[in-house]
Amino acid sequence: LLDLPQNCRTNHAPDMQLTAAILAALLSASHAQDLQCRKFSDIYPTGTELCEKMWDGAFVVSDNYTASYTMWHFEDQNPNEAVSQTLHPTGNTSVCNLQYFHKTLPTPEGPDFTECHPWKNEACCTIQTADATNLNTAYGPTYRWDRCGALSPACERFFVQEACFYECSPHIGLYRKFGGHACNQDDPQCTQVYDPSDPTHNTWQVHQMPIRKDYCDSWLLACANDLFCASGGGSYFECARIAPSVRVPVIVNTTTVVVDNEKTELSDGIIGLIVVLGLVAVALVIFLCCVVCREKAGKPMFQPLTESKGGKSDIRLSSVAGTSAPAMNA
User: Fold this and answer.
1) pTM
2) Average model confidence (pLDDT) for the chain?
3) What are the distances in angstroms from CA 102 to CA 83, 95, 144, 244, 286?
4) Residue 16 burial by Cβ neighbours in a 10 Å radius (0-12, 13-18, 19+)
5) Quick one: 21 and 147 in the same domain?
6) Can you give the residue range of the structural domain that contains 130?
7) Where does the Folate receptor-like domain lie (predicted)?
8) pLDDT digit string (tens) for 224-266?
């Protein structure tokens, strides 16, 4: 826009690039995709929707408790054993069909295996995997269950239980999406045999495993007033597509900024004002750089006050090209 001298453009190119980068960052921040956080009870009206929507079809909720699994138990005998025998008498639970952090075979763990203790005697996970902190962080920052802030202990316990179930249970492997043993002949997915050469196939995804309705109802009851990601209808995997950000909008007309799990409320208007002021500041820096450059080049934008022949002062504004503009009598 301004006809800057060549040496000025060269000497101040890094400054101009920096200000341009700042401007781009501010514009990007103003349009960044935010994590939409809402109360569990507003995202999932029922426990069934929680279990089915959160995990993108990995689980299907059933009120037939002899033909559906639980993610946690306290009995000495794992009740899921009987369920697998009923539903899949030829299914092989002596191997760990899911493969990511999993073992190849379910084996006993030692006395320190306490976090995921229901699977202590036949665990597809190691004690390193079955650590409360690791269960929340192992898959990266976008897969944390506390991205909308710290969960209540009662609510977080259900996420730990689900994580233990996924990592440690040999029964969940029957429902591996590609190549699992449990197959509903009415489900088109039944024909999807695992093909390692197909980039859309994997060995970790679960498909349509029946889960007890009372377990899912209890999960929603424990988490009803906690905040969780509502993006994609509350899909854990859709939420994971959103990059981590310090800006976390919640259900009310404010934006919650979560930094080290401490929340600060900022209204949307204040955030908009900050962005506008930032843009104005960048524009001012660019303008001042132009003024300084022209002064150094001997082509100032503003001429000093002089006395006209009539005894009146006038001020001359140099043109963009460096020639004098018509005098404006004061």
Assistant:
1) 0.66
2) 79
3) 22, 10, 19, 27, 56
4) middle
5) no
6) 42-227
7) 95-234
8) 999 999 989 999 999 999 987 645 444 433 344 333 333 444 4
